[in-house]
């Protein structure tokens, strides 16, 4: 059984629109393992279902479009309702309100950098557009940083699938996705520790004046 392979067969029927649609769906269906789907898309690129550049471009466009909808939705409904929406969506992803609050504080302090970095952290990447709309982040900065972050994320996993199947022909997409998951969990732990250190790093105390 290879459910990811079956999903890719379905996507291939719709070509570039299928790639765009799966990128869009990733933003609204938290149970969809984006890394696994992207790995399988990379594997399918070897079989000429689509080119590698097309796979990256159209999945990135779909994912960004979903993120843009979330960003604009928050800007439209106002802060109070947006906070409730953010907490609700965070619960679906297993994120506590405390972690969401820390993410909000981090974005306010380091908006330019974290818009990009947040797209490289599982779970956090899905609430990042909501957070950016809530701050609110500058639209141009949000758009540019989000596209860059998504492109990096998608390119990484699509490339893993593409080059893995070249190295080991006939590799099962599900088996490869599981191996990527193990690596991803280890990487996420390291990133989470680095994020926590950056957020909680105490500010340097101002030097005391010498008393005469």
Task: Describe the fold and architecture.
The chain is built from ten helices and no strands. It is mostly helical and 212 residues long. It has one domain (3-198). The longest helix is centred in the last third of the chain and has 29 residues, at 139-167. It is globular and about 50 Å long. The N and C termini lie far apart (79 Å). Residues 202-206 have low confidence and may be disordered. It is found in: Cell membrane. It is a multi-pass membrane protein.
Key features of this structure:
212 residues; mainly alpha; 78% helix
Summary, kept brief:
This protein is an all-alpha fold and 212 residues long. The chain is built from ten helices and no strands. The chain has one domain (3-198).
Instruction: Find the structural class using helix and strand composition.
Output: mainly alpha
Series of H and E elements: HHHHHHHHHH
Mean pLDDT: 80
* Tally of strands: 0
Specify the number of helices. Answer: 10
Shape: globular
Give the tally of structural domains. Answer: 1
Largest pleated sheet: none
Strand share of the residues?
under 5%
The stretches of 5 or more residues where confidence is low (pLDDT under 50) are: 202-206
Fraction of residues in helix: over 70%
Radius of gyration: 19 Å
**Termini separation (Å)?**
79 Å
Topology at a glance:
Elements: H1 3-13, H2 15-28, H3 34-46, H4 52-77, H5 79-92, H6 97-109, H7 111-117, H8 124-134, H9 139-167, H10 173-200
